[in-house]
Amino acid sequence: MNSNVTRGALIERRSFIQHWHEQAGACFSAGTNCQLVQHYGHPKEESDACSELALADLSMIPRWGLKGRGAEAQLNSRGLRVPPNHGFAQSQDDTNLLCRLTPEEFLWLGISEAGLQDPQTHESVNNAWFLPRADSHCWFLLSGRQTPHMFSRICGIDMRPERFENTQVALSSVARLNAIVIRADVGGQLRFHLLADSSSADYLWHCLLDTMSEFGGKPVGLSAYGMIR
Amino acid sequence: MTVTRRLSAPFGSQLDRKQTFEFEFEGKILTAIAGDSIASALAANGHWILSRSFKYHRPRGVLSMAGQDANTLVRVNGLPNCLADCTLVGPGMVVHGQNYSGGLRRDRMALLGWLSRFLPVAFYYRAFYWPRNAWNIWYRLFRKVTGLGAIDPAHVAPRHDKQYQFCDVAVIGAGRSGMQKALAEAARGRQVLLLDENNLMGGSLRYTRASVDAAAELRTLEELIDAVSREVHIDVMTSAVVNGLYTDRWLSAVKGRRMLKIRAGQVALCTGALEQHALFHNNDLPGVMLGSASQRLIKFFGVRPGQRAVVLAGNDQAYGVVLDMLDAGIDVAMVVDMRQHVSSEERCIAVRQAGVEILTGHAVFAAQGHDHIKSVEIRELNADGKCHGPTRSVDCDLLAVSVGVMPAWQLACQAGAELVYEDNNAAFSIRGLPEGVEVAGSAAGVPSGMNHPWPIVAHPKGKEFVDFDEDLQIADIINAVNEGYEHVQLVKRYSTCGMGPSQGRHSALATARLVASETGRTVAETGVTTARPPFAPESLAHLAGRSFYPERHTAMHQRHLQAGAEMLPAGTWYRPARYGTDTDTVALEASHVRKGVGMIDVSTLGGIEVRGPDAVEFLERIYTWVFRKLPIGQSRYALMTNEAGVVIDDGVACRLAENEFYVTATTGGVDNVFRKMLQWNAQWALDVDLANVTSAWAAVNVAGPLAREVLQAAGTDVALDSDAFPFMAVRIGQLAGIPVRVIRVGFVGELGYEIHVPAHYGEALWDALMEHGAPMGIAAFGVEAQRLLRLEKGHVIVGQDTDAMTTPAELQMSWAVGKKKPFFVGQRSLQILNERPDGRVLAGFMIGDTAAPMPKECHLVFANGEPVGRVTSSAFSPALDCVIGLAYLPAADSAPGAQFTIHCDGGQQVQARVAALPFYDPAGERQKS
Amino acid sequence: MKILTCPVNGPRNISEFIYGGEYHPQPDPKQSSDREWAEYVFFHANTRGRVIEWWCHSATSVWFLAERDTGTDQVVRTFVAGNWPKDLDQSEELT
What we know:
By secondary structure, chain A is of the alpha+beta class. Helices cover 18% and strands 28% of the residues of chain A.
């Protein structure tokens, strides 16, 4: 357990499934204004699970949206690499992802936690409207070669790796929830980011755990992905 | 019992003879070999009766041996209606027959067979019109005798689920043509999904005898299976029944406990053909079976279906059946060929050379036996297909019928194709398939020569069964036609023919022939009834499967649970109804708000951001009131009507900046409101951005005389005194270190602040308010107290107090409708409606009599003995110490002080008095303090 | 299950969409008589043949129009309101 955070201390931002993490015996590490799940007590097994089937809660990691006919220009002016086509994500130099959901709507995922508190990102200017995706959506990461099979139980989109290519983005229904699914492999490992309405985080989390059980999938902390140490 | 009817290898291709085990049937312990179906294991043990028929309780046994008939429905380990010919036996399995009383072999209900002439076609439809309440007397008996199988209420279905699957080409049926089709598509680089209902590929190659050289056929089979198995582009899925083919090549299939929903780029139907039965007296006796069924027993399970057989032939395929029987050491007493001449096909020649007696131009007139066939009666057929002349009786314990086949047409016809029949040669074909669906092999058609055109032999005593499921005989079909139901679809509905579990697989053709003959039309003109999914019976567990019911929780959900709240579903949301179960909990929560301070989680309230140069213009068009001059930092009530002028939602619009508004909407209405806003702007094309941010914000309403102290104690950079932060103002700042938007709204009629925070701060906000509000005695209140408090203020709940006709004027809310606006969505309709006199009004009422019963919503209001309105809300108000409520009244009778009568439960009448709204604090001083 | 092609998100199962009713343009509220207005609000042509309909992709809240044959249930094409095909008359109902 990380020494600089004691469990149960006052934290301001809390994941909608914080109670689940605590009950599952999570070890936390301090994030910005929040706690991040480091692991659930079995770092080695969790790390191994990532290449088979694993699920992690990234809801406390920064993200935002930008929308409007000026959004693309705005993102360009901030030096971001904008995906040319909608339905695709573009990895940024610092491994953050910029996803183009529709021609005029973007989602930035701060996977590396760098470039985090850019106050500029919260402003709406020149027909580019800020969207509070960090709060409207929960964010889960699924990884491993079994992930497409797992998705076939809950989502009507063909997620097989040869059909749903790396960096592809789908806005569809997952377990009857409106959801954003982004494939962003790392080092040849299949990874899917799943974002859905934050108020349904608890429902979706349990739904995913239940579906994963058929494949022996596991919930894992962020250290399994090397996202925190 | 030892296994004595078994044949040695190569017969019994499905069996693993190294493993044998015991199972229980009707209380007896029997032995089975691994790979046996229940029906084959029973046959090997000499048990042929599997069930009793639906209506006459006749003994029934193996007919198709392919799961295509309902004869084999048995109860397996408590689960009713399992197909005994498809379900593999497992060690220790407990199997029971169905639909009998007393014993399967001696069914007391078999008596009904003797009463058959008093149970005419459409018995149920006709018998109980007279006397008038006849049905009420009879139905108790029917409930007992009808229905198939018994449900074990204690049975818990194991987990079933659903799965999506995708492929370039779905090939249905892994027989010869299916495997060939799959190989051809795979060779073109297509990803193929090859499905088959059987547990092994091969289809009819595994059991029919297409030529004399059985070994050559086996080689073909092995070569095809080998090629398919080696092809990486083919995924094989066996034991999967495709039950539906829907629009755009969407297939539903059942495999084990899973339902598959398959989207295919292309579909190839290689479903083969279904062998058809012949009609003669007692054609349902156990021991009478389709030729293919006898072949399946021999080849799949190594079970000799009889010792001495008669084969009824209508085509050359029957001679393949005979050859297989001879190979299995069965004594074939005779081939009765309904054709005038036997063809010179090699199988026919081989049978003749084997010395089997062949009787051409004859038919089986009747099968005889009590619960198993003992002999057949054979008569000569004349030119018009009727039997005549002397009867010849031949002893046998097996009658195999091979007179014709029908393409397995169901999936093709589900997809919109038509099954075509040619009367001159009894050939079938399929036409009119939708794009992307093709058909191959025998499913595509049955050529001339395969079908005997009239394998129907009527008998003076009847019992020539057309439909085994429903016990329908030739006379039943003919009577249905004679009673005026000439269309085959009407015959089906009137007689229930084809409506049983086998869905007309064996009865459709015979019915069409009988109806055609009786109405003087051709079979082609008569047609068959519509094929609808599912092809094979589907269990409710499959349909229910794994279902998804999304739930929405607020950020403070855990806190509510910890505080003992009773949660109330509100759409997909869950909200605290009240904190505690005492009878006065709600009244106490409400009083606490009026006298001290309370807080309620209002995160479920809808939130929509309206931003852009045309934001004001957009709101002016969408809502009834005016927003152009609303100052920044102020909010205003927003009422929404549809094009018919009907109130559909309400909320508060906050102006955060010149071109930025944050608009709230009702919990249940926001998704619809947001969608409707987008639809309007798809037409107006105003320069405005709309975003549904409901889930992005958690919100708590702190209400009561001490509300300001609570916010102060929590620590905030927002100036809270009334001059700096007046009623209906909006402020952005920080509270307890959390970024907030605070709206000073009336809500429950007290000094109140609605604090909106980014959703992930919701729990922290709740904790902070609880902690810092403790010295002020803050307590949470639930939705029920909120409703009471709001009713005391005369606030309307859209959906509860409004209906599909309610206008703003009826709600006495014309103040919220801009008079000088050029346009808003409901404006034109309201101009028309407001000119109409004598409308209704939603008025407040009070009931002085404390002993009177409490009216409930939808209780009627009466005037002069006529219903003139209804109650929409009511509650006991602790603040006013009487029952208050809202009711629709005629406008003329709605002046405060007017008396009216409400009819309550049990016809009790209650006198109510119209009261001015709001009931509580009419001047609104408390919320503005 | 039918596939409907959203002009923004591409082909999807029809269960992802919400039907928004037949498209018929609003008459000028200032110019229309009470009767004309009431017919616009309450009457629908219920045409057999090609009609233009509103559909919404619920996962993204994208509204678009579909030209559909109500007799055959064939969707001829879909487009967003701002990209109205030139060969389709936008002002009148199709018959």
